[in-house]
């Protein structure tokens, strides 16, 4: 995990730079509604979701940035309920990755039916 | 803090307006404790046990209720440094109500709590959800352990090894908790008549025994793998450090020899060739040859 800017400012979310599909980037803000926050099981659900995509996905909580494919990093974020986090994806399937991840957050990581 | 819940239409729903049949006490204060002990006649020791993470799971019969203490995984917090701990929860089943005492709010959500027909079933579903919770945490422990292994492969620090020790410790806590839950489920099965379990409830208890046993075996396998591989991981970290030391030694020797050659010709005495205008370049060539010599010896000795 690193501290600093969540993503490079020169990237325009949703836009393809220079016609290169591999550099597509998407950013979205979501609020963690799940009562215990981002604890162990939601973290695993996030990792399992992100690993299905080719894009690099990061989760930012304030100045902390974590690679969403690395469970050690997400678990170290320590996100409580009600926190707004920023999801950022960069890669050929960035939009799909962000949509799926956002749905996971909205569905409370599949723990509540 | 008291949360009034109600079992209506097969679901547990929050109802703080009226007195429901499911009372959830999260970290009860002194006044609530006195109410539970004096009015509901809950044994003080059993009530304390319900909030004690080190207490074993057990079943106790009292004149007006049945006290059940079961173990569940505690929600992971980032301050724990990859140590997963267990917590206890107390279920006090009365004829007309269920009192739950815990250190955090049970969720009563998900498939396990979709269709509850009685308070007895709610008791069983709570214990079942803890088994499921253990299984899910075991998956997380496995994922964390794999990630730590990747980090250890390139690490020279103790940090990740200490994290792995933390995971080992967690699995010992989990094994103990799952084992003690198994004894509790057995006792529930044998006390079915006294508690008022139906035939369906008994069938569910049998399923719980199997699920719990599978969960125990899974935890045991993970624990054995972590323990048996720990020595190998310690060796990898040592080996990484040895490689670094070797590289540093190579650099030191490679610099030392040309420094020696140059310092020989820097003495404040008469030096052969001191009047030679090409002597500077000769010394540089000699120093470079010494570096080459070190490299050749290194290659010949296969260090």
Which SSEs are present, and which pair or pack?
The complex is a heterodimer of chains A (113) and B (303).
Chain A: E1 2-3, E2 25-31, H1 40-50, E3 56-61, E4 64-67, H2 71-77, E5 84-90, H3 94-106
Antiparallel strand pairs in A: 1-4, 2-5, 3-4, 3-5
Helix pairs in contact in A: 1-3
Chain B: E1 2-8, E2 11-14, E3 22-26, H1 30-39, H2 44-50, E4 58-61, E5 66-73, E6 86-93, E7 98-102, H3 119-153, H4 159-190, H5 192-195, H6 199-264, H7 279-301
Parallel strand pairs in B: 3-7
Antiparallel strand pairs in B: 1-2, 1-3, 4-5, 5-6, 6-7
- Kindly, what is the distance between the CA atoms of the first and last residues of chain A, rounded to a whole number of angstroms? 32 Å
Number of beta-strand segments of chain B: 7
The CATH C-level name of the largest domain in chain B is: Alpha Beta
Mean pLDDT of chain A: 80
CATH class of the domain at 22-77 and 93-113 in chain A: Alpha Beta
Instruction: Please give the CATH architecture of the largest domain in chain B.
Output: 2-Layer Sandwich
Q: Please provide the ordered H/E string of secondary-structure elements of chain A.
A: EEHEEHEH
| Helix coverage percent of chain B | 55-70%
The end-to-end span of chain B amounts to 68 Å
Number of individual domains of chain B: 2
């Amino acid at each position: 995990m690193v501290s600093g800017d969540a993503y490079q400012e020169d990237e325009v979310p949703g836009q393809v730079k220079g016609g290169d599909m591999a550099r597509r980037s998407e950013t979205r803000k979501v609020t963690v509604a799940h009562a215990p926050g981002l604890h162990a099981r939601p973290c695993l659900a996030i990792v399992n979701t992100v690993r299905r995509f080719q894009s690099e996905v990061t989760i930012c909580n304030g100045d902390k940035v974590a690679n969403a494919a690395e469970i050690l990093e997400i678990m170290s974020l320590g996100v409580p309920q009600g926190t707004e986090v920023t999801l950022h994806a960069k890669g050929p399937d960035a939009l799909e990755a962000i949509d799926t991840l956002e749905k996971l957050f909205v569905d409370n990581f599949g723990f509540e039916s | 803090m008291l949360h009034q819940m109600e079992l209506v239409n097969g679901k547990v729903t929050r109802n703080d307006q009226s007195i429901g049949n499911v009372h959830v006490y999260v970290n009860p204060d002194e006044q609530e404790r006195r109410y539970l002990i004096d009015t509901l006649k809950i044994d003080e020791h059993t009530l304390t046990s319900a909030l004690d993470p080190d207490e074993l799971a057990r079943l106790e019969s009292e004149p007006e209720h049945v006290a059940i203490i079961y173990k569940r995984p505690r929600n992971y917090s980032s301050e724990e440094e990859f140590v997963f701990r267990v917590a206890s929860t107390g279920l006090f089943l009365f004829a007309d109500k269920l009192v739950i005492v815990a250190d955090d709010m049970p969720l009563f959500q998900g498939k396990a709590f979709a269709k509850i027909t009685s308070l007895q079933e709610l008791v069983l579903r709570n214990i079942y959800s803890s088994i499921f919770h253990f299984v899910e945490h075991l998956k997380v422990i496995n994922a964390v352990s794999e990630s730590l292994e990747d980090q250890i492969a390139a690490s020279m620090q103790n940090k990740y090894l200490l994290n792995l020790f933390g995971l080992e410790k967690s699995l010992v806590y989990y094994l103990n908790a799952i084992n003690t839950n198994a004894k509790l489920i057995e006792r529930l099965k044998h006390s079915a008549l006294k508690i008022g379990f139906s035939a369906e409830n008994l069938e569910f208890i049998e399923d719980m025994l199997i699920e719990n046993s599978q969960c125990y075996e899974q935890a045991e396998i993970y624990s054995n793998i972590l323990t048996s591989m720990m020595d190998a991981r310690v060796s990898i970290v040592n080996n990484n450090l040895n490689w670094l030391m070797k590289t540093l030694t190579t650099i030191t020797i490679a610099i030392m020899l040309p420094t020696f050659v140059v310092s020989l010709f820097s003495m404040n005495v008469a030096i052969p060739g001191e009047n030679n205008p090409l002597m500077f370049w000769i010394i540089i060539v000699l120093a470079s040859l010494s570096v080459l010599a070190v490299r050749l010896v290194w290659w010949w000795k296969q260090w």
